[in-house]
Amino acid sequence: MTYLKDVFSKTKTPQSEPIPGSTQTPNSAGGYAWTVNDWTRLDRFLILGSEGGSYYASQRKLTLENAEAVLRCIRVNGVKTVQRIVEISEAGRAPKADPAIFALAQAAGAKADDETRRAALAALPRVCRTGTHLFHFAQYVDDSRGWGRGLRRAVADWYRQPADKLAYQAVKYQSRDGWSHRDLLRLSHPKAEGAHQELYRWIVKGWDGAGDEPHPEPALRLVWAFERAKRATSEAEIVALIREHRLPREAIPTQWLTEHAVWEALLADMPMTALIRNLATMTRVGLLTPRSEATRQVVAQLADRDRLKKARVHPIAVLAALKTYAQGHGERGGNVWKPVKEVTEALDRAFYTTFQNVRPTGKRWLLALDVSGSMECGNIAGVPGLTPRVASAAMALITAGTEPEHTLVGFTAGSGGFGGRWGGGHSGLSHVDVKPGMRLDKACQVVSRLPMGGTDCALPMLWALKNRVAADVFVVYTDSETWAGNVHPVQALRQYRHEMGIPAKLIVVGMLANAFSIADPTDAGMMDVVGFDTATPAVMSDFVAPESGGL
User: Does residue 529 form part of some domain?
Assistant: First the structure.
């Protein structure tokens, strides 16, 4: 009888085998987990992308798998897919626009589905808000479909936006992916008159309108200033053009972009995303220094919640900027700078500001970080050095900073008491010495030094049960490529619920756009969410305590 119990058990099954009677499937690590549905995978792809791949799947393989999931969603309900693309894009929930643009292009090419194609083309200006976005879309659709009448009309409609806004797009975003505005205008043939007609003529044929006096048409004065800047012979002239006509950085000839005065002029009207990207450069040229007026201006802008939201600044963009700025040198190249403390601290605060407001639930949280080898591969949104392993610490700090009652642990190598590590064999559990208030770049460094171990996502529940630790919710930040351990995480959770008498919940924060989850989709007390979705912390709080009213 003993051998039967050991071989066939629904309460204690090695993670290298499926739970009997479940719908688990093999994951890429040799263990078993549940396969998420295509709609969940669509969300993961739209938010996290597949750039950099993962430990178990190359970038090409992971991208192809996600592309197939996108196509399946389109086939099942193309209009719903387009609505989801628009929703995530407009809410600024994704760090990069590329996955949404790619998915929209696939919907625009849906065969034998006129309703989906119409919905996708109608959504074009809502998802492709900049010239660069439009160029990406053109490349994606060019790879998957022909340029029919509906597509040409949709692109032509994009170019019918107000003339002053179109002039800005044409000056700031000139070409990308082998496409230019001239290419798209020649393909789409939008009809125009007045300022639009002159703009189109300048884009397609060029325009020698940079005389001594600004263009009489207000919408064309930016173009005049752009052309004039190409011929400028002094720093004073460039500065005057920037201040009078609000020229963006992309319109400034490169020889002037090492000058302090030029950057000072640019800062006055610099868009938020450009400001965050250029902090290192402005420090290197001497504009940002301790207690300077420019530094005070930057700090004030980074603290402006409304401006961050309006610009759709994503937490990943802030975290990437903080990580690079604080280290004082770029990931590539030889540029170095001395970080300004006020700027570094402002970036740290801005990271939390870019997430939706979350109210504390008053519940007991146990946060567990997967710091295994598989989490060290791939990059979140293609940001160099921002691995899922490191990024999970930043995600955990949001909840840790909100919830007074929390414990933070990580899956590491080795064994021993929990004062150091707890567990056995290749898998263990360690306390993670990251506390609310710790600067994000420092927290990421702490996590990056933790010893890697096998992924046994059951350990948090097993440790809490063994030590009679009361927890209302377990949160696991993982790629769900779990394989180590003699019991599945859901079995450990059910044992914990039974023996502790606590209806504890499990939240799995997916840190990669793969197809797996350790959460049982049939258990209402378990939930999958997407890492680095700006809505995730509020969704988690509402799941744990609906009355908390996450905003």
Answer: yes
